[in-house]
Specification:
The complex is a heterodimer of chains A (337) and B (451). With 337 residues, chain A is an all-alpha fold. In chain A, 77% of the residues lie in helices and 1% in strands. Chain A has one domain. A two-stranded antiparallel ribbon of chain A has the order 1-2. Chain A is globular, with a radius of gyration of 20 Å. By secondary structure, chain B is mainly α. Chain B folds into 2 domains: 360 residues; 69 residues, no CATH class. Chain B is built from 15 helices and 6 strands. In chain B, the strands form 3 sheets. A two-stranded antiparallel ribbon of chain B has the order 1-2. In chain B, α6 packs antiparallel against α7 and α6 packs antiparallel against α12. Classes of the chains: A mainly alpha (337), B mainly alpha (451). At the A-B interface, α3, α4, α5 and α13 of A face α2, α3 and α15 of B.
Chain lengths: 337, 451
């Protein structure tokens, strides 16, 4: 395996971590207005992710930094090409992050309602946009011979990408509902399970539509061949099991399954991309690949050493925080946010 | 306005705004960690109340630094895609390492710190804040390693039409890093110190509750601030001398020195004509600039006109003179603010030695509003550093005009510039509202229910 492939895998891992962790964060933020009817419940819901959301978001920042370092052309083309989409996402992430910290720092119900609304919108927009972005990466966008994106913002909002956006949204909301089921008690726990059960069929249908649509909109099927490999199958089975596990009230296992669905769906997309990073819809030769978009072997080598040491360290101490705060959050917990 | 100007304006707005919150995070994280360590070691409840009080203000400020930092990391690709392509092989690495080594550390352990008062041992809890402080300052170090490459590119070769990394260690041992990082580090300490001093004095003159912890905080703040300010002045002086060697044009602009002089006089006050490159009115001290630059009354300091001719020969035709008025005034405001800070601290230290911690309205006024001085110095310092490097984005290697994203339209940048500016403005109002409320409320908090 060459260093370019190693970095493709490392960045995939960062995105898997990001979608898995921020996936339930977004889901919880989106569910906030629907699941919690009074301020105490809203605080419980927010505090289930209070300890973790910031650390989870760093997975995205690290993925962005890693794209810049390992594949500068990917970073340059995608970030300038998806300009308005990223502006929207940044605005959303800004208000969302501030909302956590500001929300409970004033008693005025209007103040709290304002930040709750920010938390909802700030979670909703990125959840959709990440689906749109991933769908566009595999579907292909107009990239010219100079690696420049020559389309417009509206080109990104094609039907396939929009289905991708809705699919990501529903997966994250389901993941978030299952997470809440795992982290809350009493009525919130029961309510989040009911919501998860309600969303589950819609999510499954969306995923199926997205996959079928993908057959026509992308070359991922012809590339992966008749035998698509194990990852889409695991993702599909895990999603189907989620519904069953929710029905028999096995929250922990259900959460494992939504996590596996998100992780293996991401793996499927990245496998379908490989060795490309962004598909050009104008000419296959103009696609960005792990070779024509990459840094030098020297840089990749230096970064590999650092990443192979510190990614496991990060996983260990972040895992430790989840262990320390493994208890369910209830009205008797200390609600910091 | 064209895309280039709009993109530069957006970078300026978002960066200055981001750096409004960062220095307080850098300095206050250490201070809160020290306070909590004192609590763990002495068991004195005053330190615990101090930790909680300053910790709360730290958190309100921290959130703003985090969310505006995401924009920083993304906009190199969004607005400066050709820059990202040209330097990505070198510049991307420190940014990625920053996220991996520093961001994860500070954000994960801050979560633990906020929620862990009851679940962790006292020692572990204090250690979490130390890890936040280390993470924050480590993050500054890696960002400045990246920025130093823009000021003094090292460890690269030009290949395939871009800068490629040839020596990773050269990036870390870049002389510029080690004059710039201490400057930023101690600026953070100054910012936190004046924040603590100002709020403490506000409480001391009102003689309200918590007088014990605010008197104690004041003492800590003054000592902390004295260390920070003296070090900033020493390190800053050292950095200026360094810059005379590596970016003489930046320093010539900082001094509005049009012609080469030996010995060079220093301008105390100049109103200049930037177009014709001449003074309209100037008060200048003979030989002082040579002394500051070389520690010697003799020594040639090259002027703007000379350097322009020199650069034309080296880099081809073009305008290599940065905006002189902005450079000159931001440099002076930064240094001026630093010396006013030093005077205030000496006065405050004198009061501590005399054990007279009551303040008349006049001195109290200056102590409280002194909170703003480090902010003024931080902002003007960065504006100076980046503006006076123009027209280069990487000094001597790549020009800002060549760096801008070619596929992003001026309409798109105008939209994002307005959106960021309005949102940032609104958040600033909310942030100051909360900081003010919690700062005035004292250690018990403004209301029992929230928190």
């Amino acid at each position: 395996m060459d260093l370019n492939t190693l970095w493709f895998i490392l960045i995939s891992v960062l995105f898997i971590g990001f979608f898995f962790l921020e996936g339930f964060d977004y889901g919880v933020g989106i569910l906030l207005p629907f699941i919690a009817r009074n301020d105490r419940d809203r605080r419980i819901v927010i505090n289930t992710i209070g300890t973790f959301w910031d650390g989870n978001e760093v997975w995205l920042l690290t993925a962005g930094g890693a794209m810049f370092a390992a594949f500068p052309h990917w970073y340059a083309t995608m970030f300038s090409g998806f300009y308005l989409a990223l502006v929207l996402m940044l605005l959303a992430l800004i208000v969302r992050g501030v909302a956590f910290e500001f929300r409970s720092k004033d008693k005025d119900p209007r103040w709290r309602a304002l930040w709750d609304w920010m938390l909802f919108t700030g979670s909703l927009i990125p959840a959709i946009l990440w689906g749109v972005a991933m769908a566009n990466l595999i579907r292909g966008v107009p990239i010219d011979a100079d690696k420049h994106y020559v389309g417009s913002f509206l080109d990104l909002l094609n039907p396939y990408a929009l289905v991708g956006g809705l699919t990501a949204l529903s997966l994250f909301v389901l993941h978030g509902a299952v997470y809440l089921n795992l982290k809350t008690t009493e009525s919130l726990r029961e309510k989040s399970r009911r919501i998860a059960l309600k969303i589950w069929p819609a999510t499954t249908i969306l995923v199926i539509v997205f996959v079928i649509f993908g057959y026509f909109a992308t070359d991922i099927f012809s590339r992966l061949g008749v035998n698509p490999g194990i990852s889409p199958i695991i993702a599909g089975i895990a999603l189907l099991l989620t519904g069953w596990l929710l029905r028999i009230d096995r929250g922990g296992w259900a959460f494992t399954m939504t996590g596996l669905t998100i992780a293996f769906a991401t793996i499927t997309i990245f496998t379908g991309l490989y060795p490309r990073l962004m598909v050009s819809s104008l000419s296959e030769a103009w696609s960005l690949t792990i070779y024509n978009a990459s840094s030098t072997d020297y840089t990749l080598g230096v970064m590999s050493i650092i990443a192979l040491i510190f990614v496991p360290v990060v996983v260990i101490y972040q895992g430790w925080t989840y262990w320390v705060f493994k208890k369910r959050v209830s009205g008797s917990s200390e609600l910091e946010y | 306005m064209d895309v280039l100007m709009l993109s530069r304006l957006q970078f300026a707005v978002t960066t200055v705004y981001h750096f409004f919150f960062v220095p307080l995070t850098l300095g206050l994280s250490i201070m809160v960690a020290i306070m909590e360590t004192m609590y763990v070691r002495t068991g004195d409840e005053r330190y615990k109340r101090m930790t909680k009080f300053w910790g709360k203000l730290f958190l309100i400020n921290f959130a703003m630094g985090v969310v505006t930092g995401i924009v920083q990391e993304f906009q190199f690709g969004m607005n400066w895609s050709e820059y990202a392509r040209f330097v990505g092989d070198v510049f991307g690495a420190p940014l990625a390492i920053e996220a991996l080594l520093a961001f994860f550390l500070e954000s994960t352990f801050l979560g633990i710190w906020i929620f862990g008062w009851k679940r962790l041992s006292k020692k572990m809890h204090a250690a979490s804040m130390w890890l936040v402080a280390i993470g924050s300052n480590l993050s500054a170090l890696w960002i400045l390693i990246a920025n130093s490459f823009m000021q003094q590119p090292v460890g690269y070769v030009l290949n395939n039409g871009r800068a490629e990394m040839a020596d990773f260690l050269a990036l870390l041992t870049n002389g510029h890093v080690w004059v710039q990082f201490p400057h930023v580090f101690f600026s953070g300490i100054c910012t936190a110190a004046f924040f603590i001093i100002g709020i403490s004095v506000w409480h001391i003159v009102r003689k309200g509750k918590d007088l014990d912890i605010f008197r104690l905080s004041f003492r800590y703040g003054v000592v902390y601030g004295l260390i920070g300010t003296v070090m900033v002045i020493l390190v800053g002086h050292n950095q200026a001398q360094y810059m005379f060697r590596i970016q003489p044009m930046k320093m010539a602009a900082a001094e509005a020195l049009w012609e080469t002089e030996d010995p060079a006089a220093m301008s105390l006050f100049t109103i200049g004509d930037e177009k014709n490159r001449e003074d309209i009115f100037a008060i200048r001290v003979p030989a002082l600039l040579s002394i500051l630059a070389y520690n010697s009354p003799a020594g040639e300091v090259r002027g703007i006109n000379d350097l322009q001719r020199d650069y034309e020969q080296r880099f081809g035709a073009g305008d290599y003179v940065p905006p002189v008025a902005i450079s000159y005034w931001t440099f002076r405001i930064m240094i001026g603010a630093g010396f006013v800070m030093l005077i205030l601290l000496i006065y405050a230290f004198y009061r501590i030695l005399k054990n007279r911690l009551d303040f008349h309205p006049g001195p109290a006024f200056f102590m409280i509003w002194g909170i703003l001085l480090p902010y003024l110095a931080n902002s003007t310092g960065w504006i100076f550093t980046e503006v006076a490097r123009q027209p280069w984005i990487v000094f001597g290697l790549f020009k800002t005009a060549d760096a801008v994203s070619p596929t992003v339209t001026s309409g798109e940048v105008a939209f994002s510039l307005i959106a960021f500016t309005l949102l940032y403005g609104a958040l600033m109002v909310a942030d100051i509202y909360l900081l003010r409320k919690y700062a005035m409320a004292g250690s018990a908090g403004p209301d029992q229910e929230a928190h």
